Amino acid sequence: MGIEKLTTLAFSMYSNKGAYALLLGSGISRSAHIPSGWEVEEKLIQKIGASQGVAESEDWHQWYKDCYKQSASYSALLGEIVKTPTERVQLMRSFFEPTDEEKEVGWKTPTKAHLSIARLAKKGYARVILTTNFDRLLEKAFELEGITPQVISHEGAISQATPIVHCKIPTIIKINGDYIDCQFRNTTEELDEYPEQMKLYLHRIFEEYGLVTCGWSGEWDKGLISIINDAAHSRYNSFFAYVGEAKNSIMSLSRDRIGELMPIESADNLFSELYEQIMALEKYDANANMNHEMMMARVKKYLSSKQYDIEFADIIEKWGAEAYNQITEVAHYNFQLSKEAFDRYLGIHLRAIAPLLDAAILTARWGNGWHIKLFGEILIKLCIRPMKNGEITTEGTQYLHALAPMLLLNTIGIACVKYGRFKELNNILKLSVPAGNFMGFYREPLLSLLGGTHWNNEMWTVLMGASYYYPFSLFFLWQLEPVFKDYFIIKSEYENVFYMWEHLKSLVYGYNKCYLIEFSVPMGSFLYKRNEYKMRKKESEPYILFFEEADKLKNNWEPIKQGMFGGSYDNYKQIHEQAEAYYQQYRKY
Using CA atoms, how far apart are residues 262 and 254, in angstroms rounded to an integer? Predict the structure, then answer.
């Protein structure tokens, strides 16, 4: 669903607590395998048919009409099948209450939507819930949340109910009745014209409250639509959610109330997302960065307990897929690379992965290995470039495709070094990317694709508008500084960790043999920075101390202890000396 409309709804409900009424139809209970009113009627007619020796009919409602000279209604059907109120309740219970087998598979129990609505009600955001459903899934969801709502299931109960404005608990209004009471509204006549007392009650609600509809098409409830249209427009907005294609009745109602049509994946998705965003808004004041702050609040929550593993995977994979789609949408590289094109693609890539960058830092800090592993999978995905037959690529321009995964890898690297997650970092650095990546038609080590630069210094001078010894290094140092601004006390601390990561990455690159043929390792700003620190007698800088510890602690040095370089100081020492010889030969200062 569009994040803008969902955010608008979340912000409206958060800012106007309790000012929105929910109108829920049968769609909200479909995933719980609750039959609609029409389906229940049909099953009752089938029972009558079976008792008369009729096993099949193309149209059971028409069969009933032909047989009994009247349209089917609950009262008539129940009167035919059972005689006492107790028998009626028992008969209807089979349609709405789960058997032991159904309980085992989660049928006819509150869905994610019901539970999220109950939580919104518990928090005071949904004080009025209207429903055309006969089932009791809402009441069960409320019970699970420890709430006892006021329930009005027929017009006779209105006069006995506490006025909504004075009611301290949520109110559920079952517009068309409740299966336990066996007082249903389901015939065309019943749905076209509501009793006067119910009409006045609903009329007032639609005038005083904003409206959010879900699982309700409006096709059968002409009387209800008439009440909504007759009510003066509330000062609050109206949101009409739909799955697939909006029905004409909903589109017309949306126009009449000057409301918002809101496409959704499902009722479960809508209300769980809505609840999460409103809860995030409780924690973070709405500001210009509202969407981003809400998303990060959710990440922190999902990292806090194993029970949220599925939600964490869902949101990270969703952001990864969205980033991939945004990037591949513009993945056409048949032009000469220029600074303008570079800046444009950089902006697209940064916007696409913005939530992933902050989420990666939080995950490195608070997550476990499984959480961090997900980001490795996203790195691989972002390296894949869809190819089309006949597509032409200008050599060098295709490396624009690496911007997003390089930014994400460097973010993961800096964060993992800062928080001592060397085992998890090593697992990511050992990954490989299948054929179809931006380099071509062969599987490549992830570090071969993302660990070093694919452009020479002359091209970097064009892209950055100035000449530097290690432009590739400085580009990422500067680009990621704003991302880490809240995680370091001062800039120099960030720079130290960046150099630790950059140097460590270079050594792992060599150790994992990510070079093509002859030995080579990426070089970067860490080379002249370490010389500068020593010349200025800054040997106590964290970057200098970090690598000095390797020679002191040997196999107990954290990167080695956590499995880097095969968990062996001897391996580390060997690649370190080999890399130093390479640096001395090819450094640019």
Answer: 10
Q: Scan for tokens 């140092």, then name that residue.
A: 477
Could you give the C-alpha distances from 524 to 175, 284, 466, in angstroms and in order? Answer: 69, 38, 17
Sequence-distant (6+) residues with CB within 8 A of 100 are none
The residue from 271, 293, 327 where one domain ends is 271
**Is residue 483 located within the same domain as residue 554?**
yes
Q: What is the pLDDT of residue 324?
A: 95
Q: Under 8 Å CB-to-CB from 365, ≥6 apart: which residues?
A: 415, 419
Per-position DSSP letters for 291-343, written without gaps between them: HHHHHHHHHHHHHT-GGGHHHHHHHHHHHHHHHHHHHHTT----S---HHHHH
Q: Is the same domain home to 60 and 151?
A: no
* Domains contained in the chain, number: 3
CATH number at residue 140: 3.40.50.1220
Say if CB 92 and CB 180 are below 8 A apart.
Answer: yes
Q: What is the pLDDT of residue 470?
A: 92
Structure tokens at 537: 């007698």
Q: From CA 84, how far away is CA 117, in angstroms rounded?
A: 35
- Please give the Cα distance from 27 to 223 (Å, whole number): 19
Question: Is residue 284, in this structure, part of any structural domain at all?
Answer: no
pTM of the model: 0.56
Establish if 221 belongs to a structural domain: yes
Q: Residues 116, 274: contact at Cβ < 8 Å?
A: yes
Radius of gyration of the chain measured on its C-alpha atoms: 32
488 & 516 share domain: yes
Phi, psi of 237 (to 5 degrees): -75, 170
- Which residues does the chain have with pLDDT short of 70? 1-4, 37, 74-75, 78-79, 83-86, 88, 182-191, 283-291, 389-390
Considering the domain boundaries, does residue 493 fall inside one? yes
**412 & 267 share domain:** no
Closest CA to 279 of 433, 124, 149, 127: 124
Domain membership of residue 323 (yes or no) is yes
Q: Which of 271, 298, 318 is the last residue of a domain?
A: 271
Residue numbers of the domain that contains 412: 308-586
483: tokens are 């991302």
Quick one: 362 and 475 in the same domain? yes
Match 């589109």 to its residue by tokens: 251
Which residues have CB under 8 Å from 305's CB, separation 6+?
Answer: none
- In this structure, the answer to whether residues 100 and 192 fall within a common structural domain is no
pLDDT at 288: 41
Structure token digits, residue 339: 């600074």
Same-domain check for residues 327 and 348: yes
Q: Is the separation of the CB atoms in 98 and 108 below 8 Å?
A: yes
Give dist(CA 504, CA 447) in Å, integer. 12
For residues 408 and 555, membership in a common domain is answered with yes
